[in-house]
# Entry
Amino acid sequence: MSKHKPCPFCKHEFSTIYAVEEEFWAVQCFNCHARGPKKSTTDEALKAWNFAALGKLTRKDAEKLVEALENPLEPNEALRKLMKGRL
Ligand SMILES: [Zn+2]
# Structure
């Protein structure tokens, strides 16, 4: 099991994985209660959370990224929009 990265929103070090709606898992920050994308396994939930924690995203961009990760239809398009002008 990989390690939790700091919260993408408040940079708090500690987060937990909890069950959402009995079928899904999500990582939640202990400090600001921001929640990562819902995933069907704890590993995927943690991976999605850590991905959002990468880089120096603003809170607004991180929120967009979490939305993008939760949308399986056009993640590449959403990420392209998000990263435009930041690279
Ligand atoms: Zn937080």
About this structure: The longest helix spans residues 42-53. DSSP finds three helices and two strands in the chain.
